[in-house]
Amino acid sequence: MAGGVMQLVAVGAMDQFITISPEMSFFKQVYKRHTNFSMESVRQTFGSKPTLDAAGNIFTCRINRVADLLSDIYFSFKLPDIYSSDKFRFRWIENIAQYMIYNCTVRIDTQQIDQIWGEWMDIWNELSLTNDQREGYNKLTGNTYEFNNPQSLNSYVVVDNNNITYAYYPEGISSPSIQGRRFYIPIPFWFTKNPGLALPLVALQYQAIDVTFELRSVEDLYQVYDSSQGLYISPREYRNRHPVQSLQPYNKDIDDISGSSTIGQSIETVSIQRFLVPVGNTYTNVSMPIDIDAYLECNFIFLDEAERRSIALNSHDYLIERIFRIEDGGIKSTKTIDLLIQNPTKEIIWILRRDDILTKYNDWINYTDSITRVSNSPILKTAKMIWNGMDRFEDKPPEYFNYVQPYRYHTRCPREGVYVYSFALYPEKVHPSGSFNASTVNKIQLYFSTLSPSSYTYDVVVYTRYYNVFRVMSGSGGMVFAN
Q1: Nearest to residue 367, comparing CAs of 354, 355, 358?
Q2: Angstrom distance (rounded) from CA 48 to CA 31
Q3: Measured in whole angstroms, how far is the alpha carbon of residue 116 from the centre of its chain?
Q4: Is 67 helix (H, G, I), strand (E, B) or coil?
Q5: In 129-265, which residue ranges form alpha helices assigned H by DSSP?
Q6: What are residue 430's DSSP bridge partners?
Q7: Average model confidence (pLDDT) across the chain
Q8: Residue 22 confidence (pLDDT) above 60
């Protein structure tokens, strides 16, 4: 008897739970026919020209009814060529595409149906993207060495006053030190996460759909090198450390001036304008808006007549996931934050920052107590959640929230300082797999302790992921439950 046949007849009592009365076969492919549809990516333009400037800006795009459903949305923009000498070593911040966006909002008429923060997109990608996906995402959004660490590409050794040093940017170059390029960043609104959640434009005949972006100040988006400290710092901090000076006669160092040769004229040492022209060229210190040629690349879905009619005429309930953001500051030693949340909540994610990390360094992704992001320097000491005055779980150290929870419930463990507590078995999936109903708990608090004693105060940002229901009926749509 052949060995394989022997295995087939070797059946015991426990096989009734595995192979007796089978419900499927591995050796017959089963598929289902689907409704007919097609997709097309169509550019949607903003009502006014999106620009970067020192103040930050808000721009709105009205979505045209190109097709029956709206699925993916990409925010596309172009950064300009940058010209920098070795003195300043200009570089864009890491994850520039996410942090350029303070937030983006979808409204149906005046009702907000979703809001996403650029910071949240970065944190979520830390948890949910595989290493291969992360590599592709970084290329898509410009989070590469060419933009946030260009000196590693063209450093060379020079002798200065009998000392060997490294120069990272050639002097007097006419070609850019950072080549401008177009980027695409996917915006993860709830209707982009699954084709079954695509926004039914055909059923929203009586309402306008607007997508609004609030962009940060350009001053928040780049760093320059301070040789006196050996660190990259924000342009604001550079100006604080190297105050406005006046030009002196016979000044030959082109990097000590800002484009004007008038003797005694007051100048500013660093501004974005000086990096938009070749080194040595004249420029103005007056802040001018930078055209980023931005638009939305939207994926529309066309349905056949029968399905289009069904969606347009019937009512629909969509179980959706939204994000709620809470921010607080001035934290020393301990803090208890009231989480003013409602509805079934699947996960809570939070970060802590030193209060000087953004103002002095523009280091948006640094959630440690170290300027240079030294590992094993977490700000958090312990944390716990409190419901109606009772501990939902006991005090736990930062490693539990930074490593154990993400290891168990997410695709990967994030960078140091991203803290997670999940109420769901599979929090990355759209399908519900666990939550707690925050509407039934009167008082929800997050308590944590930080490094003490410390020379700094800390800021905290808490994101909660919760469910709601989006209902479409009679040509209009809206949320069923209060946010």
Answers
A1: 354
A2: 47
A3: 9
A4: coil
A5: 131-141, 145-148, 151-154, 235-241
A6: none
A7: 89
A8: yes
Taking CA 277 as the corner, what is the angle to CA 272 and CA 281, rounded to the nearest 5 degrees?
Answer: 115
27-59 burial by CB neighbour count: b if 16+ within 10 A, else e? eeeeeeeeeeeeeeeeebebeeebbbeeeebeb
Q: If you ran DSSP here, which 8-state letter would residue 117 be given?
A: E
How far apart are alpha carbons 441 and 428 in whole angstroms? Answer: 24
Buried b (16+ CB within 10 A) or exposed e, 325-356: ebeeeebeeebebebebbbbbbbbbbbbbbee
Integer Cα distance of 456 and 356 in angstroms: 8
pLDDT at 250 over 50: no
230 Cβ contact list (under 8 Å, min separation 6): none
Q: What is the DSSP letter of 220?
A: G
Write down all domains in the chain, each with its CATH number in brackets: 315-483 (2.70.9.20)
Amino acid at 190: W
How many residues comprise the chain? 483
For residues 336 and 447, the answer to whether their CB atoms sit within 8 Å is: yes
Which residues touch 351 (CB under 8 Å, ≥6 apart)?
Answer: 123, 367, 417, 418, 419, 460, 461
Q: Which value, to the nearest 10 degrees, does the dihedral of the CA atoms of residues 49, 50, 53, 54 take?
A: 120
Structure tokens at 48: 């006014």
Q: State the average pLDDT over residues 238-260.
A: 56
DSSP E strand boundaries for 63-175: 69-79, 91-92, 101-108, 111-117, 156-160, 163-167
Amino acid letter for position 431: H
Burial of 19 (0-12, 13-18, 19+ CB in 10 A): exposed
CA distance 241 to 25: 72
Tokens of 59: 């721009």
In this structure, are residues 443 and 451 in contact, taking their beta carbons and an 8 Å threshold?
Answer: no
DSSP string covering 191-249, please?
GGS-GGG-EEGGG-TT--EEEEEEEPPGGGSEEEEETTTTEEE-HHHHHHHS--EE--T
- The span from the CA of 277 to the CA of 24, in Å, is 67
CA distance 460 to 330: 9
Q: What is the pLDDT of residues 93-129, one digit of tens each?
A: 999 999 999 999 999 999 999 999 999 999 999 999 9
List CB contacts of 29: < 8 A, sequence separation 6 or more. Answer: none
* CA pair distance 184, 72, nearest whole angstrom: 12
Scan for tokens 């620009």, then name that residue.
51
**pLDDT tens, position by position, 164-196:** 666 666 555 678 999 999 999 999 999 999 999
Distances (CA, A) of 58 to 98, 114, 154: 15, 16, 37
**Taking the complete model, does pTM exceed 0.85, yes or no?**
yes
The total of other beta-carbon atoms located within 10 Å of residue 121's CB is 21
